[in-house]
UniProtKB/TrEMBL annotation:
Family membership: Belongs to the GppA/Ppx family.
Superkingdom to which the source organism belongs: Bacteria
Source species: Streptoalloteichus tenebrarius (strain ATCC 17920 / DSM 40477 / JCM 4838 / CBS 697.72 / NBRC 16177 / NCIMB 11028 / NRRL B-12390 / A12253. 1 / ISP 5477)
Annotated stretches, region: Disordered: 337-376
A family per Pfam: Ppx-GppA
Protein name: Ppx/GppA phosphatase
Gene3D superfamilies in UniProt: 3.30.420.40, Exopolyphosphatase. Domain 2
Composition-biased stretches (Low complexity): 337-346
Length: 376
């Protein structure tokens, strides 16, 4: 069976990340290279709610660089998607059109629900059917995704605007944050997560609760989990007790000091406290004593779904799943069935709504070298 080299470009709120893998349907995708650049697009949204010209310029340059890198790595296909920062920009359609015109890359925007579904798929494939009723939690820069279910497609997939970067900008304005800010954010999150937890509980108690994303990996590392050098198959967990102790420590530190801690990247240090508070509130709302860290997340989910749609020779199969935006070829995501991030009450998104500025691609509502590690 012929392997296909795929590139997946993830335009997030904080970073633009290109992951290149060798894979075929039914096989374990092998990461070949991982290239990342820090854009902080969410911070480039102006007072009118539009992505600024400077932000759009930086995005075009980053996509151009990723396109060229994918070609250099021999990718047969580049799957490019954006999440909450681009999704929520009022000029989303205009930005997508400019990226397409200037780079030739079809950048599609995932809804928050689709983010949750792809991430759930990745965790399910990593953990297998023995995980039973699975609960998956992912903290991004702009949103928090949660999904639960017994199959590969979750029974409930939710997205709420509680991302680490977003809450840092709106609720933790001081550096380091004041204890009053920390207490207020804790109380606010507790109240906001009540309907979210209620919705997830109705789907059944999880047999296994896991977390994905850079934020959770960093928190686990700071509470004693094995470093990335130990490999992806080492079991890593984040406990509620360890997290509470960590928050008491890091909430009194400046972003500059946090960046000096092992495992904390300089580009994300400023939002670590907010991310920790979201993690803590989520675990409290769902009565979770620990979360297991899963190395696969959104990008891997996109790759796996793409492979599911091949006929075993690298060609796109005719069978398509429904209910989520699916990548079926080099032109990009073949339609977007979902909409954007769910409201703060944690309701699932309503299918079938149009994109921003009339653009069908805009769904309103998120180091090179062989053997690169899975990263987010």
């Amino acid at each position: 069976m012929r392997h296909v080299r795929l590139g997946v470009l993830d335009v997030g709120s904080n970073t633009v990340h290109l992951l290149v893998v060798d894979a075929h349907r039914g096989a374990h995708p092998t990461p070949m290279s991982s290239d990342k650049s820090v854009l902080r697009l969410a911070e480039q949204i102006d007072a009118s709610g539009e992505l600024s010209r400077a932000g759009a310029d930086r995005l075009v340059r980053a996509v151009t660089d990723a396109r060229d890198a994918a070609a250099e790595h021999g990718c047969e296909e580049l799957m490019a998607f954006a999440t909450s920062a681009v999704r929520e920009a009022r000029n989303c359609g205009e930005v997508l059109a400019r990226v397409r015109a200037e780079t030739g890359v079809e950048l599609r925007v995932l809804s928050g629900e689709d983010e949750a579904r792809y991430t759930f798929l990745a965790a399910r494939r990593w953990l297998g059917w023995s995980a039973g009723q699975l609960l998956v939690v992912d903290i991004g820069g702009g949103s928090l995704e949660l999904a639960t279910g017994i199959d590969e497609d979750p029974d409930v997939a939710l997205s709420v605007p509680f991302g680490a970067g977003r809450l840092t900008r709106t609720r933790l304005r001081k550096d380091p944050p004041s204890q009053r800010e920390v207490a207020a954010l804790r109380d606010w999150l507790d109240a906001q997560l009540v309907p979210v937890a209620r919705r997830l509980r109705r789907a059944g108690a999880p047999d296994r609760a896991v977390a994905t994303s850079k934020t959770f990996r960093t928190l686990a590392r700071l509470t004693g989990a094995a470093p990335s050098s130990a490999g992806p198959r080492v079991r890593r967990v984040l406990t509620d007790a360890g997290l509470r102790q960590l928050i008491a420590f890091i909430s009194r530190m400046s972003a500059a000091d946090l960046a000096e801690l092992e495992g904390v990247s300089a580009s994300r240090a400023h939002q670590l406290v907010a991310g920790a508070l979201v993690a803590e509130a989520t675990m409290r709302a769902l009565s979770l004593a620990e979360l297991e860290i899963c190395p696969w997340a959104l990008r891997e989910g996109v790759i796996l779904r793409r492979l599911d749609h091949t006929n075993g020779t690298g060609e796109t199969a005719s069978v398509r799943s429904t209910g989520t935006a699916d990548f079926t070829g080099s032109a990009g995501f073949a339609g977007a069935a979902g909409t954007g991030a769910a409201p703060a009450g944690g309701q699932e998104t309503e299918p079938g709504r149009g994109g921003a500025a009339g653009d069908p691609n805009c769904v309103t509502g998120r180091t090179g070298g062989h053997g690169a590690r899975w990263e987010r």
